[in-house]
Amino acid sequence: MARAIDLAAGGLGTTSPNPVVGCVILDPDGVVVGEGFHAYAGGPHAEVRALAAAGERARGGTAVVTLEPCDHTGRTGPCTQALISAGVVRVVAAVPDPDPVGGGGAHTLRAAGVEVTLGIGQAQAYAGNVAWLTATQRAATGDPRPYLIWKFASTLDGRSAAADGTSQWISSPEARADVQELRSTVDAIIVGVGTVLADDPHLTARTDAGALANRQPLRVIVDSAGRTPADARVRDGAARTWIATAAEVGGGADGRVDLRRLAAGLFDRGCRRVLLEGGPTLAGAFLRAGLVDRVVGYVAPKLLGAGPAALAAAGIVTIAEAIDLELTDVRRVGPDLRIDAAPRGVAPPHVELRDVSSGTART
Ligand SMILES: NC(=O)c1ccc[n+]([C@@H]2O[C@H](COP(=O)([O-])OP(=O)(O)OC[C@H]3O[C@@H](n4cnc5c(N)ncnc54)[C@H](OP(=O)(O)O)[C@@H]3O)[C@@H](O)[C@H]2O)c1
Predict the structure, then answer these.
(1) pLDDT tens digit string along 291-326?
(2) What lines the ligand 1 site, CB under 6 Å?
(3) At a CB cut-off of 8 Å and minimum separation 6, what does 319 contact?
(4) Residues 135, 266: contact at Cβ < 8 Å?
(5) Which 3 state secondary structure label does DSSP give 258?
Protein backbone atom coordinates (compact mmCIF):
# COMPACT_ATOMS: atom_id res chain seq x y z
CA MET A 1 0.00 0.00 0.00
CA ALA A 2 2.89 2.40 0.74
CA ARG A 3 4.06 1.88 -2.86
CA ALA A 4 0.54 2.47 -4.19
CA ILE A 5 0.32 5.72 -2.17
CA ASP A 6 3.67 6.87 -3.65
CA LEU A 7 2.40 6.07 -7.14
CA ALA A 8 -0.82 8.00 -6.54
CA ALA A 9 1.15 11.19 -5.78
CA GLY A 10 2.35 11.17 -9.40
CA GLY A 11 -1.11 12.42 -10.40
CA LEU A 12 -1.28 15.44 -8.03
CA GLY A 13 -2.17 18.54 -10.03
CA THR A 14 -3.38 16.76 -13.17
CA THR A 15 -6.31 14.50 -12.23
CA SER A 16 -8.99 16.95 -11.08
CA PRO A 17 -11.92 16.66 -10.99
CA ASN A 18 -10.85 13.05 -10.41
CA PRO A 19 -8.93 11.75 -7.37
CA VAL A 20 -5.29 10.70 -7.29
CA VAL A 21 -5.11 6.89 -7.17
CA GLY A 22 -2.26 4.39 -7.20
CA CYS A 23 -2.46 0.63 -7.74
CA VAL A 24 -0.10 -2.34 -7.42
CA ILE A 25 -0.94 -5.82 -8.76
CA LEU A 26 0.55 -8.91 -7.09
CA ASP A 27 0.54 -12.35 -8.71
CA PRO A 28 -0.73 -15.40 -6.72
CA ASP A 29 2.74 -15.71 -5.14
CA GLY A 30 2.69 -12.12 -3.92
CA VAL A 31 5.21 -10.87 -6.50
CA VAL A 32 4.62 -7.33 -7.87
CA VAL A 33 3.67 -7.74 -11.54
CA GLY A 34 2.05 -4.39 -12.36
CA GLU A 35 1.91 -0.79 -11.15
CA GLY A 36 -0.09 2.21 -12.25
CA PHE A 37 -1.54 5.56 -11.26
CA HIS A 38 -4.29 7.78 -12.57
CA ALA A 39 -2.47 10.51 -14.51
CA TYR A 40 -5.21 12.76 -15.93
CA ALA A 41 -9.01 13.06 -16.01
CA GLY A 42 -10.37 11.06 -18.95
CA GLY A 43 -7.28 8.84 -19.01
CA PRO A 44 -7.12 5.25 -17.79
CA HIS A 45 -7.66 4.68 -14.09
CA ALA A 46 -4.82 3.37 -11.90
CA GLU A 47 -6.25 -0.18 -11.78
CA VAL A 48 -6.53 -0.37 -15.57
CA ARG A 49 -2.93 0.78 -16.07
CA ALA A 50 -1.61 -1.64 -13.46
CA LEU A 51 -3.64 -4.51 -14.94
CA ALA A 52 -2.31 -3.70 -18.42
CA ALA A 53 1.24 -3.90 -17.07
CA ALA A 54 0.52 -7.20 -15.31
CA GLY A 55 -1.28 -8.89 -18.21
CA GLU A 56 -2.10 -12.58 -17.59
CA ARG A 57 0.00 -12.60 -14.43
CA ALA A 58 -2.84 -10.77 -12.62
CA ARG A 59 -5.04 -13.92 -12.79
CA GLY A 60 -5.51 -15.34 -9.29
CA GLY A 61 -3.67 -12.33 -7.84
CA THR A 62 -4.30 -9.31 -5.62
CA ALA A 63 -4.90 -5.65 -6.47
CA VAL A 64 -3.69 -3.15 -3.85
CA VAL A 65 -5.30 0.24 -4.47
CA THR A 66 -5.42 3.52 -2.56
CA LEU A 67 -9.14 4.18 -3.18
CA GLU A 68 -12.09 1.79 -3.43
CA PRO A 69 -12.30 0.81 -7.14
CA CYS A 70 -14.96 2.73 -9.06
CA ASP A 71 -18.17 1.07 -10.17
CA HIS A 72 -19.11 3.72 -12.67
CA THR A 73 -18.96 4.18 -16.41
CA GLY A 74 -17.78 7.71 -17.10
CA ARG A 75 -15.21 8.57 -19.73
CA THR A 76 -13.70 5.14 -18.96
CA GLY A 77 -15.35 1.85 -17.91
CA PRO A 78 -15.78 0.70 -14.30
CA CYS A 79 -12.60 -0.57 -12.64
CA THR A 80 -14.63 -3.27 -10.88
CA GLN A 81 -15.30 -4.95 -14.24
CA ALA A 82 -11.65 -4.59 -15.32
CA LEU A 83 -10.52 -6.33 -12.08
CA ILE A 84 -13.12 -9.11 -12.38
CA SER A 85 -12.28 -9.72 -16.07
CA ALA A 86 -8.57 -9.89 -15.27
CA GLY A 87 -9.25 -12.68 -12.77
CA VAL A 88 -8.09 -10.81 -9.67
CA VAL A 89 -9.31 -12.74 -6.60
CA ARG A 90 -8.52 -10.23 -3.87
CA VAL A 91 -8.70 -6.44 -3.64
CA VAL A 92 -7.10 -4.49 -0.80
CA ALA A 93 -8.24 -0.84 -0.78
CA ALA A 94 -7.28 1.93 1.64
CA VAL A 95 -10.12 4.47 1.54
CA PRO A 96 -13.81 3.87 0.72
CA ASP A 97 -14.99 6.10 -2.13
CA PRO A 98 -17.32 8.78 -0.68
CA ASP A 99 -18.45 9.82 -4.16
CA PRO A 100 -22.14 8.90 -4.55
CA VAL A 101 -21.52 8.45 -8.30
CA GLY A 102 -18.29 6.44 -8.41
CA GLY A 103 -18.53 4.58 -5.08
CA GLY A 104 -19.90 1.16 -4.27
CA GLY A 105 -17.20 -0.83 -6.05
CA ALA A 106 -16.50 -3.09 -3.07
CA HIS A 107 -20.07 -4.35 -3.12
CA THR A 108 -19.91 -5.25 -6.83
CA LEU A 109 -16.55 -6.97 -6.40
CA ARG A 110 -17.81 -9.05 -3.47
CA ALA A 111 -20.94 -10.00 -5.39
CA ALA A 112 -18.61 -11.37 -8.08
CA GLY A 113 -16.75 -13.48 -5.50
CA VAL A 114 -13.71 -11.21 -5.08
CA GLU A 115 -12.42 -10.94 -1.49
CA VAL A 116 -12.31 -7.24 -0.54
CA THR A 117 -10.49 -5.69 2.42
CA LEU A 118 -11.06 -1.98 3.05
CA GLY A 119 -9.08 0.30 5.35
CA ILE A 120 -5.47 -0.89 5.01
CA GLY A 121 -3.19 2.19 5.19
CA GLN A 122 -6.24 4.42 5.31
CA ALA A 123 -4.73 7.38 7.18
CA GLN A 124 -1.72 7.69 4.83
CA ALA A 125 -3.81 7.20 1.70
CA TYR A 126 -6.34 9.74 2.99
CA ALA A 127 -3.56 12.30 3.53
CA GLY A 128 -2.27 11.76 -0.02
CA ASN A 129 -5.72 12.40 -1.49
CA VAL A 130 -7.00 14.85 1.12
CA ALA A 131 -8.00 17.58 -1.31
CA TRP A 132 -10.23 15.41 -3.48
CA LEU A 133 -11.70 13.53 -0.52
CA THR A 134 -12.47 16.75 1.39
CA ALA A 135 -14.02 18.44 -1.65
CA THR A 136 -16.04 15.34 -2.57
CA GLN A 137 -17.36 14.86 0.97
CA ARG A 138 -18.38 18.52 1.12
CA ALA A 139 -20.05 18.37 -2.27
CA ALA A 140 -22.07 15.37 -1.09
CA THR A 141 -23.42 17.54 1.75
CA GLY A 142 -24.36 20.42 -0.55
CA ASP A 143 -21.20 22.49 -0.02
CA PRO A 144 -19.18 22.08 -3.23
CA ARG A 145 -15.86 23.93 -2.99
CA PRO A 146 -12.19 23.06 -3.45
CA TYR A 147 -9.69 22.27 -0.71
CA LEU A 148 -7.88 25.57 -0.19
CA ILE A 149 -4.25 26.05 0.83
CA TRP A 150 -3.20 29.56 1.89
CA LYS A 151 0.49 30.13 1.29
CA PHE A 152 2.42 33.17 2.44
CA ALA A 153 5.98 34.32 3.02
CA SER A 154 6.95 36.52 5.94
CA THR A 155 9.85 37.68 8.03
CA LEU A 156 10.32 36.24 11.51
CA ASP A 157 8.40 39.26 12.85
CA GLY A 158 5.44 38.47 10.59
CA ARG A 159 5.92 41.17 7.93
CA SER A 160 5.05 40.53 4.28
CA ALA A 161 6.75 43.67 2.96
CA ALA A 162 8.97 46.49 4.17
CA ALA A 163 7.63 49.92 5.20
CA ASP A 164 8.37 51.31 1.70
CA GLY A 165 6.33 48.47 0.12
CA THR A 166 9.29 46.49 -1.22
CA SER A 167 8.59 42.80 -0.73
CA GLN A 168 10.58 40.93 -3.35
CA TRP A 169 12.78 38.11 -2.14
CA ILE A 170 11.58 37.97 1.45
CA SER A 171 12.14 34.23 1.15
CA SER A 172 15.13 32.34 -0.24
CA PRO A 173 15.58 30.82 -3.74
CA GLU A 174 15.06 27.40 -2.11
CA ALA A 175 11.71 28.48 -0.66
CA ARG A 176 10.66 29.97 -4.00
CA ALA A 177 11.54 26.69 -5.73
CA ASP A 178 9.43 24.89 -3.12
CA VAL A 179 6.51 27.19 -3.98
CA GLN A 180 6.88 26.25 -7.64
CA GLU A 181 6.53 22.62 -6.63
CA LEU A 182 3.42 23.46 -4.63
CA ARG A 183 1.97 25.31 -7.64
CA SER A 184 2.48 22.22 -9.78
CA THR A 185 0.14 20.24 -7.48
CA VAL A 186 -2.86 22.59 -7.61
CA ASP A 187 -5.65 23.33 -10.07
CA ALA A 188 -5.78 27.10 -9.50
CA ILE A 189 -3.75 29.95 -7.99
CA ILE A 190 -5.74 32.81 -6.42
CA VAL A 191 -4.66 36.37 -5.65
CA GLY A 192 -6.49 39.63 -4.96
CA VAL A 193 -6.34 42.53 -7.36
CA GLY A 194 -4.20 44.37 -4.77
CA THR A 195 -1.33 41.95 -5.42
CA VAL A 196 -1.73 42.33 -9.19
CA LEU A 197 -1.60 46.13 -8.91
CA ALA A 198 1.41 46.06 -6.53
CA ASP A 199 3.56 43.30 -8.03
CA ASP A 200 2.19 42.41 -11.50
CA PRO A 201 2.90 38.68 -10.87
CA HIS A 202 2.77 36.09 -13.68
CA LEU A 203 1.31 33.30 -11.46
CA THR A 204 2.63 30.42 -13.54
CA ALA A 205 4.19 27.10 -12.56
CA ARG A 206 7.81 26.74 -13.65
CA THR A 207 10.20 23.83 -13.92
CA ASP A 208 13.53 23.69 -12.05
CA ALA A 209 15.18 25.11 -15.18
CA GLY A 210 12.81 28.12 -15.07
CA ALA A 211 10.75 27.13 -18.13
CA LEU A 212 6.95 27.16 -18.07
CA ALA A 213 5.63 23.81 -16.84
CA ASN A 214 3.57 21.80 -19.35
CA ARG A 215 0.46 22.06 -17.28
CA GLN A 216 -0.56 25.41 -15.79
CA PRO A 217 -3.04 26.01 -12.96
CA LEU A 218 -5.91 28.39 -13.65
CA ARG A 219 -4.95 31.94 -12.59
CA VAL A 220 -7.73 33.56 -10.55
CA ILE A 221 -7.78 37.30 -9.80
CA VAL A 222 -10.39 38.32 -7.24
CA ASP A 223 -11.23 41.75 -8.53
CA SER A 224 -14.63 43.15 -7.44
CA ALA A 225 -14.74 46.12 -9.79
CA GLY A 226 -12.55 44.88 -12.65
CA ARG A 227 -9.44 46.94 -11.88
CA THR A 228 -6.93 44.45 -13.36
CA PRO A 229 -4.91 46.49 -15.90
CA ALA A 230 -5.24 45.57 -19.57
CA ASP A 231 -1.50 44.93 -19.77
CA ALA A 232 -1.21 42.89 -16.54
CA ARG A 233 1.04 39.84 -16.97
CA VAL A 234 -1.74 37.53 -15.77
CA ARG A 235 -3.64 38.44 -18.94
CA ASP A 236 -1.03 36.89 -21.24
CA GLY A 237 -1.48 33.52 -22.94
CA ALA A 238 0.84 31.49 -20.67
CA ALA A 239 -2.13 30.01 -18.75
CA ARG A 240 -5.88 30.38 -18.47
CA THR A 241 -7.01 33.32 -16.32
CA TRP A 242 -10.29 34.03 -14.57
CA ILE A 243 -10.77 37.63 -13.46
CA ALA A 244 -13.63 37.10 -11.02
CA THR A 245 -15.65 40.30 -10.55
CA ALA A 246 -18.57 40.99 -8.21
CA ALA A 247 -20.78 41.49 -11.28
CA GLU A 248 -20.06 37.93 -12.43
CA VAL A 249 -19.71 36.01 -9.17
CA GLY A 250 -21.97 38.05 -6.92
CA GLY A 251 -21.03 40.56 -4.26
CA GLY A 252 -21.29 40.49 -0.47
CA ALA A 253 -22.72 43.26 1.69
CA ASP A 254 -19.50 45.25 1.18
CA GLY A 255 -19.82 44.98 -2.61
CA ARG A 256 -16.75 42.77 -2.81
CA VAL A 257 -16.64 39.39 -4.51
CA ASP A 258 -18.60 36.80 -2.49
CA LEU A 259 -15.84 34.29 -1.68
CA ARG A 260 -18.20 31.36 -1.01
CA ARG A 261 -19.67 31.78 -4.46
CA LEU A 262 -16.19 32.13 -5.91
CA ALA A 263 -15.22 28.82 -4.26
CA ALA A 264 -18.34 27.10 -5.63
CA GLY A 265 -17.49 28.52 -9.07
CA LEU A 266 -14.02 27.00 -8.84
CA PHE A 267 -15.53 23.61 -7.95
CA ASP A 268 -17.79 23.91 -11.02
CA ARG A 269 -14.70 24.56 -13.12
CA GLY A 270 -13.28 21.22 -11.96
CA CYS A 271 -10.91 22.61 -9.30
CA ARG A 272 -10.44 20.41 -6.22
CA ARG A 273 -7.12 21.69 -4.80
CA VAL A 274 -6.35 25.40 -5.00
CA LEU A 275 -3.62 27.71 -3.73
CA LEU A 276 -4.41 31.13 -2.27
CA GLU A 277 -1.29 33.27 -2.60
CA GLY A 278 -2.65 36.40 -1.01
CA GLY A 279 -2.17 39.12 -0.34
CA PRO A 280 -2.98 39.90 3.28
CA THR A 281 -6.40 41.48 2.63
CA LEU A 282 -7.79 38.58 0.61
CA ALA A 283 -6.22 36.00 2.93
CA GLY A 284 -7.97 37.66 5.90
CA ALA A 285 -11.28 37.55 4.05
CA PHE A 286 -10.88 33.86 3.13
CA LEU A 287 -10.03 32.97 6.74
CA ARG A 288 -12.96 34.96 8.04
CA ALA A 289 -15.23 33.04 5.66
CA GLY A 290 -13.88 29.70 6.98
CA LEU A 291 -12.65 28.69 3.53
CA VAL A 292 -9.00 27.85 4.38
CA ASP A 293 -8.13 24.17 4.86
CA ARG A 294 -4.38 24.40 5.20
CA VAL A 295 -1.77 27.09 5.82
CA VAL A 296 1.75 26.92 4.41
CA GLY A 297 3.99 29.66 5.80
CA TYR A 298 7.56 30.32 4.68
CA VAL A 299 9.21 32.23 7.48
CA ALA A 300 12.51 33.90 6.64
CA PRO A 301 15.04 34.59 9.44
CA LYS A 302 14.84 38.33 8.81
CA LEU A 303 13.45 41.20 10.88
CA LEU A 304 11.83 44.37 9.53
CA GLY A 305 10.15 46.01 12.53
CA ALA A 306 7.75 47.89 10.24
CA GLY A 307 5.70 47.15 7.13
CA PRO A 308 2.43 45.33 6.43
CA ALA A 309 1.62 42.11 8.27
CA ALA A 310 1.34 38.79 6.42
CA LEU A 311 -2.34 38.70 7.35
CA ALA A 312 -4.78 41.61 7.47
CA ALA A 313 -8.03 41.72 9.44
CA ALA A 314 -9.77 38.36 9.61
CA GLY A 315 -12.68 39.45 11.79
CA ILE A 316 -10.91 38.65 15.07
CA VAL A 317 -10.99 41.15 17.91
CA THR A 318 -10.15 39.19 21.03
CA ILE A 319 -7.65 36.43 21.77
CA ALA A 320 -10.36 33.85 22.44
CA GLU A 321 -11.37 34.18 18.77
CA ALA A 322 -7.87 33.47 17.40
CA ILE A 323 -7.89 30.87 14.64
CA ASP A 324 -6.43 27.80 16.26
CA LEU A 325 -4.06 25.83 14.02
CA GLU A 326 -2.70 22.34 14.36
CA LEU A 327 0.88 21.99 13.10
CA THR A 328 1.18 19.18 10.57
CA ASP A 329 4.78 19.69 9.44
CA VAL A 330 7.76 21.94 10.20
CA ARG A 331 10.94 21.81 8.15
CA ARG A 332 13.89 23.86 6.90
CA VAL A 333 13.83 24.93 3.24
CA GLY A 334 17.25 26.47 2.58
CA PRO A 335 17.70 29.15 5.25
CA ASP A 336 13.93 29.49 5.80
CA LEU A 337 11.37 27.59 7.81
CA ARG A 338 8.32 26.01 6.14
CA ILE A 339 5.40 25.55 8.51
CA ASP A 340 2.34 23.52 7.48
CA ALA A 341 -0.75 23.78 9.64
CA ALA A 342 -4.48 23.19 9.46
CA PRO A 343 -7.20 25.26 11.14
CA ARG A 344 -8.94 23.04 13.66
CA GLY A 345 -12.49 22.03 12.96
CA VAL A 346 -12.60 23.15 9.31
CA ALA A 347 -12.03 19.86 7.46
CA PRO A 348 -14.82 17.30 7.47
CA PRO A 349 -14.06 14.14 9.44
CA HIS A 350 -12.47 11.23 7.57
CA VAL A 351 -14.92 9.16 5.62
CA GLU A 352 -16.36 6.47 7.79
CA LEU A 353 -14.92 3.11 6.87
CA ARG A 354 -17.87 0.95 5.96
CA ASP A 355 -17.85 -2.78 5.60
CA VAL A 356 -19.95 -3.06 2.49
CA SER A 357 -20.78 -6.75 2.71
CA SER A 358 -22.17 -6.77 6.23
CA GLY A 359 -23.57 -3.23 6.24
CA THR A 360 -21.81 -2.45 9.54
CA ALA A 361 -19.50 0.50 9.99
CA ARG A 362 -16.02 0.54 11.45
CA THR A 363 -13.75 3.55 11.93
N1 LIG B 1 4.35 37.95 1.49
C2 LIG B 1 3.41 37.34 0.81
O3 LIG B 1 3.26 36.12 0.92
C4 LIG B 1 2.56 38.12 -0.12
C5 LIG B 1 1.70 37.46 -0.99
C6 LIG B 1 0.90 38.20 -1.84
C7 LIG B 1 0.97 39.59 -1.79
N8 LIG B 1 1.82 40.21 -0.94
C9 LIG B 1 1.90 41.66 -0.88
O10 LIG B 1 0.64 42.15 -0.52
C11 LIG B 1 0.49 43.47 -1.04
C12 LIG B 1 -0.91 43.61 -1.60
O13 LIG B 1 -1.78 43.50 -0.49
P14 LIG B 1 -3.34 43.51 -0.63
O15 LIG B 1 -3.86 43.10 0.68
O16 LIG B 1 -3.81 44.79 -1.21
O17 LIG B 1 -3.57 42.42 -1.78
P18 LIG B 1 -4.66 41.34 -2.06
O19 LIG B 1 -5.15 40.72 -0.82
O20 LIG B 1 -4.10 40.46 -3.11
O21 LIG B 1 -5.84 42.15 -2.74
C22 LIG B 1 -6.77 42.81 -1.96
C23 LIG B 1 -7.94 43.21 -2.81
O24 LIG B 1 -8.71 42.08 -3.18
C25 LIG B 1 -9.97 42.54 -3.58
N26 LIG B 1 -11.05 41.70 -3.11
C27 LIG B 1 -12.01 41.17 -3.88
N28 LIG B 1 -12.91 40.51 -3.17
C29 LIG B 1 -12.52 40.61 -1.89
C30 LIG B 1 -13.08 40.14 -0.69
N31 LIG B 1 -14.19 39.43 -0.64
N32 LIG B 1 -12.44 40.44 0.46
C33 LIG B 1 -11.31 41.15 0.46
N34 LIG B 1 -10.72 41.62 -0.67
C35 LIG B 1 -11.35 41.37 -1.84
C36 LIG B 1 -10.11 43.94 -2.96
O37 LIG B 1 -10.11 44.89 -4.02
P38 LIG B 1 -11.49 45.24 -4.73
O39 LIG B 1 -12.41 45.64 -3.63
O40 LIG B 1 -11.19 46.27 -5.72
O41 LIG B 1 -11.93 43.98 -5.37
C42 LIG B 1 -8.90 44.09 -2.12
O43 LIG B 1 -8.44 45.41 -2.04
C44 LIG B 1 1.58 43.62 -2.07
O45 LIG B 1 2.52 44.54 -1.58
C46 LIG B 1 2.16 42.26 -2.21
O47 LIG B 1 3.54 42.33 -2.46
C48 LIG B 1 2.61 39.49 -0.12
Answers:
(1) 999 999 999 999 999 999 999 999 999 999 999 999
(2) 152-154, 160-161, 165, 167, 170, 191-195, 198-199, 222-225, 227, 256-257, 259, 277-282, 285, 310, 312
(3) none
(4) no
(5) coil
